[in-house]
Specification:
By secondary structure, the chain is α/β, with parallel strands linked by helices. Helix content is 40%, strand content 17%. The protein has helices at 14-19, 39-50, 96-106, 110-125, 133-149; strands at residues 4-7, 30-37, 58-62, 87-95.
């Protein structure tokens, strides 16, 4: 079980934190931040950090390495624990412009798209990836399980 604190100035993601409770194990509270960006900012971030000069929907910036499938322990990452005893998982940047476009393209709500992108980002912060088909399948399974808890699963 994890106790997840999501810092986001523009949207309440408390339901997302609850949906991830059983998706990992930790000996301390975990924290992450979600920020929203426009097309220009997400492209700049993608170019600077991923050397990919294009607009994207979501970027994740994990703070911890080697945590996939393991209990997340504060003692393993002492420099990433804040003054409140929370271990910082990392940051997620979501492009609201692309989220709106994708919501329309896929025929669902903007809120559902925001949550999907946030879930995708949290999965990356927890060590999941989609570079191989096996990894992609594991990550998609995790995403769908969390979205189902949020009553946002694909129909």
């Amino acid at each position: 079980m994890i106790d997840l604190d999501i810092c986001c100035d523009e949207h309440d993601f408390s339901a997302l934190a609850g949906a991830f409770k059983a998706e990992a194990e930790s000996d301390c509270p975990l924290a992450l931040e979600i920020v929203f960006a426009d097309r220009q900012e997400i492209r700049r971030l993608n170019s600077e950090f991923r050397k990919n000069d294009r607009v994207t929907d979501v970027l994740s910036f994990p703070a911890l390495d080697g945590i996939l499938g393991k209990k997340i322990c504060a003692a393993d990452f002492p420099y990433d624990v804040d003054e409140d005893g929370r271990l910082f998982l990392g940051s997620i940047a979501i492009c609201t412009d692309v989220a709106r476009e994708q919501a329309e393209e896929y025929g669902h709500t903007y809120e559902r798209e925001l949550y999907y992108l946030a879930v995708h980002g949290v999965c990356h912060l927890l060590g999941y990836d989609h570079m191989t088909e096996t990894d992609k399948a594991a990550m998609r399974e995790k995403e769908e399980r969390v979205l189902k808890i949020l009553n946002l699963a694909r129909e």
